[in-house]
Amino acid sequence: MKIAIIGGGAAGLMAAITAKRLNNKIDIDIFDINKAVGKKILASGNGRCNISNTEISFENYIGENPAFVIDALKQFDFNAFEKFCKTIGLILDIKSSCKVYPLSNEAKSVVNLFENELINLGIKQILETKIVKIKKENEKFILQSLNKEFNNYDKVLISSGLQAAPQLNSTEDGISIATSFKHSFNLTYPSLVGLHTDFEYKSKLQGVKKESTVSLYIDKQKQKEITGDVLFTKYGVSGFAILDISQYAVYPLSLYQDVAISINLFPNLTKNELLGILENLFKTLKHSDVFTALSGIVSRKLALVILEMNNINKELKSKDINAKHIRAIVNSLTNLRFKIEDTQGFKHAEASGGGVRTDEVDSKTYESKFCKNLYFAGEVLDIVGNRGGFNLHFAWASGYLAGKSLAKQ
């Protein structure tokens, strides 16, 4: 039996190794557009590779049907993944945050060990090859690259991902191939990505970073609230809280809905508590200007913008500021609100949302419901995980289930 795997990322690598271990008689070819497999793994976790998470449920995933992941997570949970890693010599470092990294703290070691296992198992890597079309004739699959044809495959796995990080040659060719077999797909969008805002003072706040609570509003209705770091940038906002909230903001934005966020820069204080702190601050520094006083609780950049937003002269003496001014400052610090206009795009996204519709794929085998012996795994499917190792874990788990299916005669 001859098998083709399109895409040598996490899902494809796991599928290949799983299938070959279960059935040593099969021949497996992995096709990848890059000079080596695992390019996106190398880029994950800023090169450290946040490889998994010890606390995983379907609630960590987004898509048309997040429950699609349940079977994969049951069969290939974190314990199963850890056992697999030991068989290829990969030792894991489990953090108190539940995030998991290689003990080497280096993504390169992850890729090297997977490559080593491919070689040990005799799995062929066909690199720098872009598969653009697949046909099925007489129960055999024919793969076409830009300049060559590859014949007589009994089974094919599409694990080529989506468009996130196009600088790593990411494409949506998997969707194109899926549609040629009558599959449909949901609109793709960048996920875990910085957001562009209409905030007129954004360039003045560039570089300011603060733990905040970010609230997301879709068509003026509050949808989500996340607390974490917010980083102000020249284009808008980034930071962990923004990357997390982007997962719920970008799809509505792509549908031209009204998307806005509110940032509470003091999530651990009530408005009254913050009001009291400011009143005491201005009394204590009554002979200083309000800019100097306000700089006691926020960065100087932020203090300047808050005063400018509320038409308060920065040289005004603290003793002369009135109650109305203080309430306005409190409101700005706890409800800094602006519209989202765009994202940083696929180039700066950690993942892609959307993809091949999961109701057209068997959740237990990852086989197409439309074409026998055609399989899908990983990011090409309409499943995207939260930040923290969840996307890679779905790639491993879906690749494992697909690999079990590929091994069967």
Written overview of the protein:
This is Aminoacetone oxidase family FAD-binding enzyme. Residues 189-350 form the RsdA/BaiN/AoA(So)-like insert domain. By secondary structure, this protein is α+β, with helices and mostly antiparallel strands. It folds into 3 domains: 2-190 and 353-407, FAD/NAD(P)-binding domain, CATH 3.50.50; 194-263, Elongation Factor Tu (Ef-tu), domain 3 (Beta Barrel), CATH 2.40.30; 271-334, Helicase, Ruva Protein, domain 3 (Orthogonal Bundle), CATH 1.10.8.50. The chain is 32% helix and 26% strand. The chain has helices at 10-22, 39-43, 70-75, 78-87, 107-121, 173-180, 240-254, 271-284, 290-294, 300-309, 323-334, 390-407, and strands at residues 2-6, 27-31, 52-53, 61-62, 92-94, 99-102, 124-126, 131-137, 140-145, 149-153, 155-158, 185-191, 195-197, 209-218, 221-232, 236-238, 259-264, 336-343, 351-356, 374-376, 384-385. The strands form 6 sheets. It has a 6-stranded antiparallel barrel with strand order 13-16-15-14-17-18. The protein has a 5-stranded parallel sheet with strand order 7-2-1-11-20, sandwiched between helices. Strands 3-6-5 form a 3-stranded antiparallel sheet. The longest helix has 18 residues, at 390-407. The termini are close together.
